[in-house]
Amino acid sequence: MLLQCRAWRFVVAAAVASAAADYSAAAGNGARAAYIGGTLAGIPNNAGGNIQAVDEQYFVFYSKKSSVRVPYEKISIVEYGQKVDRRYMMAFLISPVFILSKSRRHFLTVVFSDDHGREQAMIFKVDKSDIRAMLVSLEARTGRKVQYQDEEARKAGKG
Predict the structure, then answer these.
(1) Domain range enclosing 35
(2) In a domain, 21, yes or no
């Protein structure tokens, strides 16, 4: 009986922690993202971090080694696209059924003018669960409509 009670407490504690993590992400702590590339020299490619559009003045990317703050009024383009890959390697190694499944990656491109008036671009791979909230936040903060790379991206970005 005591063992069951402890197991139940563990399940409840895990559920509360999970709900708190989901709430904090939804409350505006940003989105998990990786800087894939762009024109900024100070950020290494594939740097994992967090993008945020909750500040009233700045779009922000934080990673362990660097951070970038871009004023919303300097952002000229917000673009969203997907890359869809068939899972050929998994099909080859495990089962042909995997050829029928797809892997989607979600990309956000932010184009802005730097302090010298030059256009700069940042491309992020964003976690699937965070992309919609990020797109809505960026549209609201920048006053610019998100540009979609294709109809599939439009459907995924708008829900």
Answers:
(1) 29-158
(2) no
Q: How far is CA 146 from the centre of its chain?
A: 14
CB 50 within 8 A of CB 29: yes
CATH of the domain at 114: 2.30.29.30
The answer to whether residue 24 is domain-embedded is no
Domain annotation covers residue 16: no
Question: What's the chain's average pLDDT?
Answer: 76
* Coil, helix or strand at residue 108: strand
- Give residue 84's pLDDT: 54
Residue that wins the pLDDT comparison between 10 and 32: 32
Q: Is residue 7 part of a domain?
A: no
> What is the count of structural domains for the chain?
1
Q: Is 60 exposed, middle or buried (0-12, 13-18, 19+ CB in 10 A)?
A: middle
pLDDT of residue 74: 97
CA pair distance 130, 59, nearest whole angstrom: 15
Are the C-beta atoms of residues 107 and 82 closer than 8 Å to each other?
Answer: yes
